[in-house]
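Dear support,

I submitted the protein below through the web form. The confirmation email said the job was done, but the results page showed an empty box. After a refresh the structure appeared. I'm attaching both so you can tell me whether what I see now is the final result or a partial one.
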Amino acid sequence: MIIQKEFTLTPHKRGFHLVTEEISRNLPPLPPTGLLHLFIKHTSAALTINENADPDVQTDMEAIFNRLIREREPYYEHTCEGDDDMPAHAKSTIVGVELTIPITNGRMNMGIWQGIYLCEFRNRGGGRKIVATVIG
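What the results page shows now:
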């Protein structure tokens, strides 16, 4: 069985945002065992899994990425969409646009301290489209 559903996440400001619950609410019914593949249809945002307990992780991740990839570098050629655009593309490439999560007993099988993050790299990214594919 393969089921696919596309949905749009609530818009978020720039930063790292826990979206595990929002994604769960939008998923089709999950089989007893299988795989969940999540794909974000954007080039300036990403998905990742990280700690879901301490909100300082979100703040620290934003600070780390802003130091790794800075805005307004003199060597950027793609600048017509704003200072945050080219850095957003680079950050998205580093983090990635997809996740694969095992399904066990009809639920996403993640660690107790793991949550799904939307990595919003634009100042105003808008609603981000997710394609969820369930294989089971």
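Response: this is the final, complete result; the empty box was a page-load delay. The beta strands are 2-8, 13-18, 33-40, 45-51, 98-104, 107-108, 114-124, 129-135.
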